[in-house]
Design a protein that fits this description.
about 45% helix, single chain, hpI Integrase, Chain A
């Protein structure tokens, strides 16, 4: 390949921009004379990170970033900028013993590559090298000093590679992959408790529910407005709750150009409505609020961002940043002391909940097309990893393992009491919950229901995972456990669908926890 046809292989068209402002793809003017370029809500680049490199290279890099601002999404510009920070750091050290015209030859690229591999994961190295290559080829094509066309040809033909897609999903990583079924059910149970006994803020509660229910990314939630929530009364008297969720990564200029309507359960719908009412009450008491100036975000700051006020992003000054949703999930874990199946504190992130959302849909029989639609992907290519994760494997579960896992699973939501006389509604025979013996027959009562209304759940199976259940210490819970374990093994040997084999695993773990607490109760009683 010759120098004269380099334009055939360059990655981007060349369009240098020497103005003091740059028009972003969204139509917003970016001030490129300041040290910090505000690209979008929650997105900026700071040129203070680029100290220690020659002026001509800094100038070339700024022109490249202006080009990126014009034609790329703000997050992509920010990521490319941050990726090149590693190159700048190495370059500053190399300047001490290399001539400037040698800095950007292929030797430097090899040095940079080795430097990265000694510090970062393979996936990160690939991203950083790809950013370097794009930057170098663009600057070379634009004719900036210090960039060699032959080097750009070599870089363009280089196979850099990429991230291994879905590695956390495929490996079922206990800290970063999909949540274990017991971990997920424990989280779900606690969120439902919060709906009854409010111990979390509405902000944290609604955010957690939306990430659980739809596998949303934090950015989806950032761009939600109150107007996206809709309530419709049907002809049969039922109420339909809907939420239009902004789509992201769809090559649109503005964040709210495309929306995806989703149906909410009444439980979540009511909480969203309560959050909106709370927001409105707070705005009514806020003298800074101006309905003609600011967007009414569903997840809103308590005060406007100073960095966004009186800029092209003024209307988004009350929007939160994506990081707050990670904090919301950590608040959930901290409030309820949720544990992982390995015994430590449960690590939950929006990404893990998205993995979990997808894997559970596959377990429920979703097709690749259905999963792509649920995750809001434009095609099925990105979702196939979930179908390669061997989700059909049925875990072993016997009495010993159930008792071992019980403490961490946190499946039992009720309480253990000494006898019926100590129960709420203890004088009401209708509150008694009959158990099932090892042979599968209904036996004597083993607990009381603290619910004063008819719940309609299947007793006693559903009772052990219900917050209203009061298990009696002197009751044959071991027989109940043995019955469910026997049924589970029978289904497994018969080759039943994994979902049917594991359908009562959460109840098994809940009963095991009751047995463990009963043993503690008897130990304390003997000591008295």
């Amino acid at each position: 390949m010759t120098k004269k046809n380099i334009s055939m292989v360059r990655l981007d068209a060349i369009k240098p921009n020497t103005n003091s402002t740059s028009l972003a793809r969204s139509g917003i003017n970016i001030d490129t004379l300041s040290a910090i370029w505000r690209l979008a809500h929650g997105c900026s680049i700071n040129w203070a990170h680029y100290k220690g490199i020659p002026a001509h290279l800094l100038h070339a890099t700024k022109e490249y970033m202006k080009y990126r601002v014009n034609y790329s999404a703000p997050e992509y510009v920010q990521n490319q900028f941050q990726a090149l920070v590693r190159m700048v750091a190495l370059m500053a050290t190399q300047l001490e013993h290399m001539r400037i015209n040698e800095i950007l030859d292929y030797k430097f690229f090899n040095t940079y590559q080795q430097h990265l591999r000694n510090k970062y994961s393979d996936g990160s190295v690939c991203n950083y090298l790809d950013a370097y290559r794009r930057w170098y080829i663009w600057c070379s094509d634009a004719g900036f000093t210090g960039f060699d066309v032959d080097v750009s040809i070599q870089l363009n033909e280089l196979v850099i590679g990429g991230n291994e897609k879905g590695s956390k999903v495929l490996s079922h990583d206990p800290d970063e992959g999909p949540l274990h079924d017991a971990e997920f059910e424990a989280l779900l149970g606690r969120l439902r408790i919060v709906g009854i006994d409010r111990v979390l803020s509405l902000f944290d509660l609604v955010a957690a529910w939306l990430m659980v229910a739809f596998g949303t990314n934090p950015k989806n939630l950032v761009w939600l407005n109150e107007e996206d929530y809709k309530v419709k009364k049907l002809s049969d008297g039922q109420v339909l709750y809907m939420l239009r969720i902004p789509r992201i990564k769809k090559s649109t200029a503005r964040e709210r150009e495309q929306m995806k309507p989703r149906i909410l359960t009444p439980e979540i719908g009511v909480l969203v409505e309560q959050l909106i009412n709370e927001n409105r009450n707070r705005r009514a008491a806020d003298p800074r609020w101006d309905v003609t100036r600011y967007a009414a975000s569903l997840f809103a700051r308590t005060s406007p961002s100073i960095l966004l006020q009186d800029t092209g992003f003024d209307e988004d000054a009350y929007r939160v940043s994506t990081s707050v949703f990670g904090y919301a999930l950590r608040n959930v874990v901290s409030q309820f002391n949720l544990k992982s199946m390995t015994g430590g504190k449960l690590r939950i992130s929006p990404r893990r909940l998205r993995y979990t959302f997808a894997t559970r849909l596959v377990q429920e029989g979703a097709s690749p097309l259905e999963l792509a639609e649920a995750l809001d992907h434009t095609d099925t290519q990105q979702v196939m990893v979930y179908f390669n994760a061997r989700l059909d494997i049925v875990r072993d579960l016997d009495r010993a393992l159930a008792l071992k896992l019980a403490r961490h699973a946190q499946a039992f939501l009720g309480m253990v009491i000494g006898s019926e006389s100590q129960a709420i509604r203890g004088d009401d025979l209708a509150s008694r919950i009959p158990l099932i013996d090892a042979q599968g027959n209904h036996s004597k009562p083993g607990g009381s229901c603290g619910n004063f209304g008819f719940c309609g759940l299947y007793a006693p199976i559903a009772c052990y995972t219900c917050i209203k259940f009061q298990a009696w210490a002197e009751a044959p819970h071991g027989d109940m456990l043995q019955h469910l374990l026997t049924e589970r093994e029978r289904k497994k040997k018969a080759g039943a669908d994994p979902k049917m084999v594991q359908i009562h695993d959460q109840t098994i773990l809940a009963i095991a926890e009751v047995i463990r607490r009963c043993e503690e109760w008897f130990t304390k009683k003997r000591r008295k």
